[in-house]
Specification:
The complex is a heterodimer of chains A (226) and B (272). Chain A is an alpha+beta fold and 226 residues long. Chain A contains 6 helices and 10 strands. Classes of the chains: A alpha+beta (226), B alpha+beta (272).
C-alpha cells in the first residue's frame, strides 16, 4: 500500500489561495464608489445577460467577480437568506453585515473543506437612510471580510485600479462623476472601455423602497458624456 | 444562509423555499372558527389599463372589527391584488404573494409575466383549500398591466384556485352583487381613467349602501376606500382628496335625488 506524500498545511493553503487568486485575476474587474445619493457599482462585463451586479434586498446589492456559476450561486443564496429573514422578522431587520458574515462562513468553509476553493470575490453593499449608514463589505475567496468606506475594487489588476480610483475619489461626487472616475479607473491610461462592455448599477437613496437600479446603456452614455 | 445542492435547489420558488427551511404552514384547526371577514372589491378595465378598488371594513359577525383594512394592495410594479374573505389568511397570502413576485424577479433577473403571476396566485388559493373548508375562505382578484400584450387584464378566482380571466369587470366579496350591477350598467368599452375611477367609486358606494359588511367613505375619520390604477406606467394610487371629492359628488347627487321638490304654490296652495 502506498502512503500519500506528506504536504504541510501551510503549503496546502498556499496552493489553494494561489489557485483561487489565479482564477480571479483572469476575470475583469469591477469597482464600487460611494456618491452623495448612494453607491454606484461599475463592472467591465462584455455580456448583456450574465450579470455581475444584482439586487439582493431593498437597500442591498451584490457584485461578484471570478467564476460566474460560483458567484451566481452565492447571489441566489443571499437573496434567499434576505427574503427569508425579511419574511420571518421585518424588512428593516435585513442588513448587509449579517449577509457578509454568512457569505464569509460559506467561502471560508469551502476554502478549507472542499477540493477546490471558490474562485470568486464578492461585494455586499448597503445604502443607508443617511450617507453615514452606507456600508460595503468586500469578501475574498477564503472568507476574509473587509469593511470598505468609500471605494472597493474587485477582480484582476485590483491594485492598479484601486490606486487610480483613490487618486480621483473625492467626497460629494454625483452619480455621473462617480461613473466617470469608475470607468477611468477600470480602463487605465492606455485604453477606453466601450459602453456596451460596461454594466452599471446604483443603490440610490431616492429610489423608493427598492433602492437598486440598473443604468441603461443610454444612461451610461449620458453619464460619461460620450 | 440556505445553500442547496443543484439537484435539491428550490429555484425561484419562495413558498417552496419556506417549506425547505421549515417555516411554512399553519397548524391545522378543526371545526369552524369565527374570524374577521373582509368585503367588497372591484376591478375594471379602461382604455390604458385597470382600476382596482376596495372598501376598508372588516367584520366579525355583526361587529365591525376593523375600519381601515387595506384589501387592495400593490403586488408589484405592474399588478395589484384585492382580497375578500377571512382577513388573517388573506393578509398572509398577499404578503407571501408580493414576496414571491419580488423573489422570482431577483433570482431570475426578470419579472414574471402577468399570466405567470396570475397562475402563481391560483396555486396559493388552491393551497388554502383545507383552511377554506373550515371557513377561512380567501377569494382574491388579480389585476395588472400585461407588458407583453400591452393591455390591462383582470383575473377572478374561486376557492379551489380556479382562475377566470374577465374582459370587462369583476367584483368579489359580500357586496359584490350590488357593486357588479352598478358597473354592469355603467360600463363602456375604452373608458377614460377618470370615468373608470368614478364608476368604481360609485359601485363601492352602492355596495356600502346595501351591504352592512361593506364600509362606505368615512369622512369623520378620513378613511376612504383604496382605489388604484395600473397602466404601462405602473401602479398609481388615487389620493384621498380626490376620492373625497368624488364621494362628495355622489352624496350631492343622492341628496338631490331624495329631496322631494318644494310644493308649487300655484297647486293646492293656501287660499288665505
Amino acid at each position: 500500500m502506498s502512503m500519500p506524500f506528506y504536504v504541510a498545511p501551510e503549503q496546502v493553503m498556499k496552493d489553494r489561495a494561489d489557485y483561487a487568486r489565479k482564477g480571479i485575476a483572469r476575470g475583469r474587474a469591477l469597482v464600487a464608489i460611494r456618491y452623495t445619493d448612494g453607491i454606484a457599482i461599475i463592472a467591465e462585463n462584455p455580456s448583456e445577460t450574465l450579470r455581475k451586479v444584482s439586487e439582493i434586498y431593498d437597500r442591498i446589492a451584490f457584485a461578484g467577480v471570478g467564476k460566474y456559476n460560483e458567484f451566481d450561486q452565492l447571489r441566489v443564496a443571499g437573496i434567499r437568506a434576505a427574503d427569508l429573514k425579511g419574511f420571518q422578522y421585518s424588512r428593516d431587520d435585513v442588513d448587509a453585515r449579517t449577509l457578509a458574515n454568512q457569505y464569509a462562513q460559506i467561502l471560508g468553509t469551502v476554502f478549507t473543506h472542499e477540493m477546490k476553493p471558490m474562485e470568486v470575490e464578492i461585494l455586499v453593499a448597503e445604502v443607508g437612510l443617511e450617507p453615514a449608514g452606507d456600508q460595503m463589505f468586500h469578501i475574498l475567496y477564503d472568507g476574509t471580510v473587509m469593511d470598505q468606506r468609500n471605494t472597493a475594487v474587485l477582480g484582476g489588476d485590483a491594485e492598479a485600479i484601486s490606486g487610480r480610483l483613490d487618486d480621483s475619489f473625492t467626497d460629494g461626487l454625483d452619480l455621473a462623476n462617480a461613473v466617470r472616475i469608475g470607468v477611468a479607473a477600470l480602463a487605465g491610461p492606455d485604453r477606453d472601455i466601450d459602453t456596451a462592455e460596461l454594466e452599471v448599477a446604483q443603490l440610490s437613496r431616492g429610489n423608493g423602497r427598492r433602492c437598486f437600479h440598473r443604468l441603461s446603456e443610454g444612461d451610461v452614455v449620458d453619464a460619461l458624456g460620450r | 444562509m440556505p445553500f442547496f445542492e443543484p439537484v435539491d435547489d428550490p429555484g425561484s420558488n419562495f413558498p417552496e423555499l419556506l417549506r425547505r427551511v421549515g417555516l411554512a404552514g399553519r397548524a391545522e384547526q378543526s371545526g369552524q372558527i369565527d374570524v374577521p371577514h373582509a368585503t367588497t372589491c372591484v376591478a375594471l378595465r379602461f382604455v390604458d389599463g385597470v382600476v382596482l378598488a376596495g372598501d376598508r371594513r372588516a367584520t366579525s359577525g355583526n361587529l365591525i372589527s376593523h375600519r381601515a383594512m387595506e384589501k387592495v394592495v400593490q403586488a408589484d410594479r405592474y399588478s395589484g391584488v384585492a382580497i375578500a374573505g377571512a382577513a388573517g389568511p388573506a393578509m398572509e397570502m398577499i404578503r407571501l404573494f408580493q414576496l414571491q413576485l419580488e423573489h422570482y424577479e431577483k433570482v431570475e433577473g426578470s419579472p414574471l409575466s402577468l399570466e405567470g403571476k396570475a397562475n402563481q396566485l391560483s396555486m396559493m388559493v388552491r393551497g388554502n383549500l383545507p383552511a377554506a373548508m373550515q371557513g377561512m375562505v380567501v377569494v382574491p382578484l388579480f389585476a395588472g398591466y400585461d407588458l407583453r400584450r400591452e393591455v390591462g387584464r383582470l383575473f377572478a378566482y374561486d376557492v379551489t384556485g380556479g382562475r377566470y380571466e374577465e374582459r370587462e369587470y369583476v367584483a368579489t366579496g359580500s357586496g359584490s352583487l350590488h357593486a357588479s350591477t352598478v358597473i354592469k350598467v355603467g360600463f363602456r368599452a375604452a373608458m377614460s381613467r377618470d370615468d373608470a375611477i368614478d364608476l368604481a367609486v360609485r359601485s363601492l358606494w352602492e355596495a356600502a349602501d346595501a351591504d352592512s359588511a361593506t364600509g362606505g367613505p368615512d369622512a369623520l375619520r378620513g378613511i376612504y376606500p383604496i382605489v388604484a390604477t395600473v397602466t404601462a406606467d405602473g401602479w398609481a394610487p388615487v389620493g384621498d382628496d380626490d376620492l373625497a371629492a368624488r364621494f362628495q359628488r355622489i352624496a350631492d347627487e343622492v341628496l338631490v335625488r331624495s329631496t322631494p321638490p318644494a310644493p308649487d304654490p300655484a297647486i293646492g296652495g293656501d287660499d288665505a
